[in-house]
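[audit] Reproducing an earlier prediction to check determinism. Same input, same settings, fresh worker. If the tokens differ from the archived copy the diff job will pick it up downstream; this log only records the rerun itself.
[audit] input (327 residues):
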Amino acid sequence: MKILVTGSAGHLGEALMRTLRPTAHRVIGVDILASPFTDRVGSIADRAFVKDCLRGVNAVLHAATLHKPHVATHSRQAFVDTNISGTLNLLEESLVAGVEAFVFTSTTSVYGLALAPPAGAPAVWVDEDTVPIPKNIYGVTKLAAENLCELFQRKLKLPVVVLRTSRFFPEIDDDAAMRAAYADANIKANEFLYRRADIEDIVSAHLLALDRAPALGFRRYVVSATTPFARDDSGALRRDAPGVVAARVPDYPAVFERLGWSMFPAIERVYDNAAARRELGWQPRHDFAAIVERLCKSEDVRSPLARLIGAKGYHDEVFADGPFPVD
């Protein structure tokens, strides 16, 4: 099979390329940036470039995007050009090329304002039925691209799977108050409870989606580490998250005490990956319990793939107030 990977110089694109290159598949990496994992340099907003890249391609893993960290540094038109028009170019030329499976990397950021429960309300249990309310141009354009994918499957029968991925980047948190209150590794460990995944698991979800797309037709999935929580925990998570976590993962308090870490006092949302596990046969290996077990053994909590890729950053310049300016 010949597979096109867009965004091959980015976190996920590189991870996909590293995973696929040793296989029997022929894989072509595309990005606007040259890299060891980019075979063709160009923009997906360029229809002629996209058409040429798709010659003979059987499947597409579309990870190229402008991200949330670009909101304050790039124009809204740039987001439309890349995230919407670029996706449209890929969908249309995929039809021409006879592509058999298309996987679109979306984001849990499409949920936006739906992730913030009112004071006193339970934590939001986020699954595929949660209605997105995007709060910035990033979320708006990713949701629009999702809808284009659904349109192409419904009207033109192109098999498409959309994966709404949670956080998997290793950069420091963009929230200054969060950075001041917790060590970076502490933040990321906590997030595996409800809003983070290891890139190794993100890659495995993409490859399963690619394999299953022809049979599925069209699906959207939340892709995040498996939470230890049940929906019934939602109320208690807003009142006493440390108590709920201790009940679910009893080894965590001793490990956190040894490290001088703290659990967040409240958790406002939980991403539920049950549909992806059930329908894709996805078996994510990296969750909060696994993180705690590695911490007990003083092991690196990251997968080998995550360690290999490391941090890339999103901008050439360094900002005084964090990893990127927050809009």
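[audit] rerun output stored. Observation attached for the diff report: Strands lie at 2-6, 26-31, 40-41, 59-62, 101-107, 124-126, 160-165, 218-223, 269-271.
[audit] end
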